[in-house]
Amino acid sequence: MTTASPHETTAPAQNTIRPVIELCRQGPYWCWAVATTLLRLPPIMAPMALVLASMHYNGGPGLGGMLVGVSLVPSVLSAPVFGRLLDRLGPEVWTFRLLLFGAAARVALAPAFALGAPTWLLILLTLVGQVMTFGTGGATRALLDRVVPQRLISPALSIDSVLIEIVVVTAPFLVVLTSLASPAYALLAMGLSMAAGAVLLHPKALLRRSSESASDRTTSGEDLTQEGTDSAVTTPPEPNGVWRNPRFLFWALVSFSFGHLIGTADLGVLPRAVQQGGGTAQAAVLTAVLGFASAGAGLLYAWYGPRIKTSAVTQAFVLLLLMTASSVAFANAGSWWALGLAFAVLGLGTAPLNTVMFAAPPGIVRAERTSEAFSVLVAANGVGMALAGALLGAIPLHTMLLLGSGSALVTLLVGPILLRRGARTTRMHPPSPNSPGRATSPRRASSQGEK
Question: What is the pTM assigned to this prediction?
């Protein structure tokens, strides 16, 4: 008669722990979460900080506005290139190095403004700082798959979505506080925040914590061989990589639509509030409603999301439909209560869709292309937001608000075609058993699952 080993008897007890509770015990995740929070602050602080510095040192906001505009398009377009480069060089080693380089450029921007440096130098420093931030965004997300078990990816991304809302709310206040003495201090704070985030992503700070955490779980009897399994991953990674991968292109469209919807709400809220007879205060309240609804939905999804049995694609369709309906309601609402409800519903879909979207690539893209895949999603999201800004200045407000849901409707129509083509391609060209797409690291990223 055989007896169960201690390992076998303790594994079921481990699996009964709620994912969020287990995640709270994951030191590597919180190291990663703090790092990404610090790295998100500079690009959100930058528009206000650069305009303040321009007004203080140059007598007007023109230079600051130009620096914001000049750096946006190159940053978004270069993100996939940097993602591919980091895939080749190794995101664990090179991500923090590029971030430190970008942090040095942001720090140098403060004395450059204060000392009246030429415009070309200010443009160069701003470009380097912004490009490095966007360029390493995909690799930073890819590192999450190295530091937490596969089963915790979804709740980890949900909590990360909540942290995004916190950053969006607090960044303007940080600019105000740090610029009380001089706007140069706000620029300096941006660089120091980026440097601190880069240090936390150093392999000795991040991956060593992950190894220690895995060792602790092994000691406690947890079966680490089950970490890479996920019932949601029923198809192998696409043999065509990223750009010829129909299933991944579906998620790129979702990211673009997501960015367009959120950009429409963020940029259209003030003129819509004025149109309704309000002003800045009412717009701020609506924005806060969206942020609180998104944060609450993110926490709920982190707790209950792993128990949802429907596929990630189905969840994406449902959430896109929800956000599309709320965007249409935002454009046509006739009262403040209706506007508030539309923003609340939009927020309820924001964090869950962001989670599902950014959990997607590892299940459908080869492991050596994940940084590039995440960078493409970041770029697509940025292009969607930029489109909202361009439409705001080119067409009537009501039309711009209605078109916010237009890209989502296109995604909902084109998505099934891409998904069917992807399924057909996978059947015709299945990856070999030795394909590197399934796992090249102890914790391979996960199943398909978003700003």
Answer: 0.77
